[in-house]
Specification:
With 261 residues, the chain is an alpha+beta fold. The chain is built from seven helices and nine strands. Bound molecules: coenzyme A (COA).
Length: 261
Amino acid sequence: MTASTFSPNSDRASNSPSTSTSTTCQYLSSGLTIRLSNYFIDCDQSCAINMNAPHLGKIFNPVRLKPADKRAATAVLARAFVGDPLLRYVCPDDRKRYARTQYIIKTIVSFGLHYGEVWTTPGHVDAAAIWMPPGTDYMTTARRIRTGMIFERLVLGRAGIDRYTVFNELTSKLHHSLISRPHWHLFVIGVDPLLQGHNVGSGLIKHMLERTDRDHVPVFLTAPNPLVVPFYERLGFRVAREVNVPNSSLVIRGMIRPSGD
Ligand SMILES: CC(C)(COP(=O)(O)OP(=O)(O)OC[C@H]1O[C@@H](n2cnc3c(N)ncnc32)[C@H](O)[C@@H]1OP(=O)(O)O)[C@@H](O)C(=O)NCCC(=O)NCCS
């Protein structure tokens, strides 16, 4: 599978109806044919665990994720997030959650690669952090097409997309109510589950916090998982507000790390 998210089909007339809407979707208004299967990755090929990683428990210099490593980053983040309360809320069905997590994560990695910054561990992709610089964190239809988010309804199903939309809308409101000055948004961070607790996550965040400190810019993030709050607090973030997601036990915490000025 290539990293490309969709392939233009210049010959609309020969665009025969798809045999299965679960694998191919015709994006009628633009004449693009998009293979939905491109949004699912063969995780097994990216599952090699790097227990001898030189960055385990040590100070390391994170590197920018190469577009060619998008698949490896998606696999690591999907493994890190499949048990997350947000993914459990969006997809309560255990049998479907992994594939749907892969899809959601893949679109988010695309979003980060196209419009933000994605950082990872040197040498081997054992973790990834997606950061949106000031002023870049907004959604448009063009962005939704480019990242594959346009397929959310098809992939997540009606109930899944309804829940995901509720979450996204509440998160967006919380975000804009808490911070209006220019800031970075730590969108997603995840470490391979077998390597968690060895300072990889903090190492991946700290170099960016040095940069935001130098630039006197605050950082915003949301934490639906209560277990990670102490991790962020140790890095200087504070819970600014909590929002309950209706009809669920999910709580979204908006956290801010001040700029220091
Ligand atoms: C949260 C996370 C990025 C931290 O990275 P890490 O390399 O494991 O963390 P570090 O070794 O640098 O720091 C250790 C701290 O991370 C937190 N942590 C470690 N494993 C964790 C896990 N499975 N879930 C939640 N928090 C965890 C703990 O606060 C831990 O501190 P402790 O050892 O005193 O309990 C990583 O655990 C992870 O990917 N979790 C799953 C995905 C996730 O929840 N991401 C955050 C989105 S809001």
